[in-house]
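DM between two lab members

TW: hey, do you still have the Amidohydrolase entry open?
JB: yeah, one sec
JB: this one, 77 aa:
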Amino acid sequence: MSWKPVVTAAVVQAGSILFDTARTLDKLADLASDAAARGAYLAVFPEAFVGGCPNGCARSYIAESGPSALMSRFQKI
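TW: and the structure you got?
JB:
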């Protein structure tokens, strides 16, 4: 029998803040921190949690702010 590592994961059931990606990223950071404080090594969020608006709107936000602005927000998490 082989050894298998155990990973504690948190499944986050929450919604984004519509049309406000910056606040959604803050919410994600808070929820991920809470999951970590409760012992989770991995936090799983709903598909498209970050975006906060319909697909086309997200594209225009990225075009206006540039990918580096979004990456800097993710790096803070």
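TW: got it. Residues 11-76 form one domain. The chain has three helices and two strands.
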